[in-house]
Amino acid sequence: MSKEHIETDVILIGAGVMSATLGTMLKEVAPYWNIKVFEKLDSAGKESSNEWNNAGTGHAALCELNYTKEQEDGSVDISKALDINEKFRVSQQFWSYLANRNVIESPSDFIRPLPHISFVRGERDVEFLSKRYEAMSEHPLFRGMQFTDQYETLKNWMPLMMKDRDANQPVAATKVDAGTDVNFGELTRLLMNHLEDTDVDVQYQTEVYDVERQDDESWEVKVRNFENGTIEHHKAKFVFVGSGGGSLHLLQKSKIPEGRGIGGFPVSGLFLVCQKPDIVAQHDAKVYSKAPVGAPPMSVPHLDRRFIENKETLLFGPFAGFSPKFLKTGSMSDLITSVKRDNLVTMSASGLKNASLTKYLIQQLLLSKEQRMEELREFVPEADSEDWELVVAGQRVQIIKDTEEGKGTLRFGTEVVSSEDGTLAALLGASPGASTAVSIMLELMDKCFPEYMGDWEEKLKDMIPSYGQSLIDNPELMKELEHSTAQALGLDVQDSSGKVYSLQ
């Protein structure tokens, strides 16, 4: 007896920011397509997209030092920073399109202006930051960036961090006032609510536990409903696996050749949190510094002003941890069950190559709260442990694969793995993911729906005016769109002198 399939056009697995973004974009270009979303938890944006599970940095490479690399000749390569900055601007264009259509009625619910600062200590790092500033400030995308190594100026920029600091210590910072704080959890909820209003079938407390290709090249998605225990078999022409750390297992079950040999390494995070108004009021920025030697890029220390659950908050971290779970709500067997015959050698090679990372994670796990406070005091010299509490942030699964760099390379960043025919795609990896979600989904649509892209071009340009053009190479277009997006989203604009002004 054949199974009864519930047929649809598109299935999105996971109700995080990636599925929310792709679903919203598809509904704009193909409004008559039937879309279903399956989410294991009871509401949207509860895992990696949740505001407590990430730093909320609108990753635009304004302050993240790991996006700029010092070369052997001493020069600073800013190509990755340019790429990420452009992609964040593309996301802002799409969000402003939604705001102008009142899909997002109050942008300040999820995005707010906040300065981005890079802060370093020691003569060597001060020299690096100065060269980085010279390279970046020459490009229109980073105009308005300011640099200082003067104590009084730094005290004005970061009063909490400069209080009681040794004035003889070499320190420096760059500052971009037109940075942002983004609540990706709230953005996800806004987009998912909109999808439900446009007749997208969003089902919570439903777990996708298998994905299998059918003879007609469609995909069968097996779904378990936690509320009533029923099993359903859904069938779709296209499936997107956007379930964060849970994506790897489903990619493996799909058996597409492109997913072979890929492994994952879970890294958890913790933050120190302060919500005392008198302390929070002294720090109005996101301040990033350099990662410790041996630490993964996602462990770059930073002190962030956040607006979470209607409260001004300071977060410091992240401190790395380890759990074999691939999601905060995952299983302790996630890591071991992800090891398959086709990725065993890759995973083993990675273990041997990343001994320093393993050592770093062990050291981080063994830290007491007071030892973590000592790391915070490198940022805030007078920090009192009674004012700060430790919270567990999200799980991230870093990609492990064989590359030109060798077997078992641990890759940091976000990557889409798709079948050759484009009928299934899975998103793997971590930062800067959410900030660049719109660009990632444009690339996915180009790969998975090539036959429609010509028909969708006019609408895509309406949604994202720079579509098909390079903001890096077109500063006039960049400036024009910067103003329109800032106006729609209630953000600030910074001129070449560093002066910030509002368009509201």
Automatic annotation (TrEMBL):
A matching Pfam family: Mqo
Keywords: FAD, Flavoprotein, Oxidoreductase, Tricarboxylic acid cycle
The keyword Oxidoreductase is annotated on this UniProt entry: yes
InterPro entries hit by this protein: FAD/NAD-bd_sf (IPR036188), MQO (IPR006231)
An annotated GO BP: tricarboxylic acid cycle
Coiled coil: none
Recorded metabolic or biological pathway in which this protein acts: Carbohydrate metabolism; tricarboxylic acid cycle; oxaloacetate from (S)-malate (quinone route): step 1/1
Substrates-to-products reaction catalysed: (S)-malate + a quinone = a quinol + oxaloacetate
EC number: 1.1.5.4
Molecular functions per Gene Ontology: (S)-2-hydroxyglutarate dehydrogenase activity; L-malate dehydrogenase (quinone) activity
Swiss-Prot/TrEMBL cofactor(s): FAD
Enzyme class: oxidoreductase
Domain of life: Bacteria
HAMAP family, sorted: MQO
Family: Belongs to the MQO family.
Protein name as annotated: Probable malate:quinone oxidoreductase
